Amino acid sequence: MAAALRVRHYHPTDSDRVRELDAAAMGATDAFSVSVPSADLDSIEASYIDVGGEFLVGETGGRIVAMGAFRPATGYVTAYVRDLPDSTAELKRMRVDPAFQRRGYGEQVCAALERRAREHGYTDLVLDTSPDQRGARRLYEKRGFEEGSHERVETDSESFEAVFYHKSIADET
After folding, report:
1. What distance lies between CA 82 and its chain's CA centroid?
2. How many whole angstroms separate alpha carbon 159 and alpha carbon 141?
3. CATH number for the domain running over 6-168
4. ∠ at Cα 37 (35, 42), nearest 5°?
5. Closest by Cα among 26, 20, 3, 2 to 132
6. How far apart are CA 45 and CA 120, in angstroms?
7. Is residue 31 very low, low, confident or very high in pLDDT (cuts 50, 70, 90)?
8. Cβ atoms 163, 127 nearer than 8 A
9. Of 2-6, 26-30, 97-101, 149-153, which gets the smallest average pLDDT?
10. 107 or 37: which carries more pLDDT confidence?
């Protein structure tokens, strides 16, 4: 049986571990051929909390082993998931330390983020992931996210394949 996960709000003293976790989780997958920009991790408060979002971490044994965030949906995701209400948040930075995967920690963080998003007044969530991220896709589908389009996303600095998901959280309790 997996050790209990304590999900809590991000604190600035978590910054180094959050970056380590992000690098470990991204490095453990070959789903991304490009480096995922991490400017948002340079200022988590400004990128998530100050704009009406959240950044949560999950701890077990006093160590951060999972994380995730949401913020108002903006940027390229809104170009690929159409007709979103203004009350839509984008799920971001869902990560679980590779040594702690398949223990339900990602699902616990995702559930906590959904609850917090609803408390913040959001009615919908969107996200994107790589087509090769099968575990992440199973998690999102298990949580009720509906798969939308598969797209080649072109940004100023990169090009990548993405699968977009959407979920209404307005009627959940």
Report:
1. 20
2. 25
3. 3.40.630.30
4. 135
5. 26
6. 16
7. low
8. no
9. 26-30
10. 107
The total of other beta-carbon atoms located within 10 Å of residue 85's CB is 11
Backbone φ and ψ of 99, nearest 5°: -75, -10
- For the stretch 125-164, pLDDT in tens is 999 998 888 889 999 999 999 998 877 877 677 777 889 9
Nearest-angstrom CA–CA distance, 22 and 67: 9
Burial class (CB in 10 A: 0-12, 13-18, 19+), 96: buried
List the structure tokens of 145.
């996210």
pLDDT in tens, 43-60: 999 999 999 999 999 999
Rounded to whole angstroms, the Cα distance separating 114 from 120 reads: 10
Three-class SS string for 81-143? Answer: CCCCCCCEEEEEEEEECHHHCCCCHHHHHHHHHHHHHHHCCCCEEEEEECCCCHHHHHHHHHC
Three-class secondary structure of residue 162 per DSSP: strand
**The pLDDT of residue 172:** 66
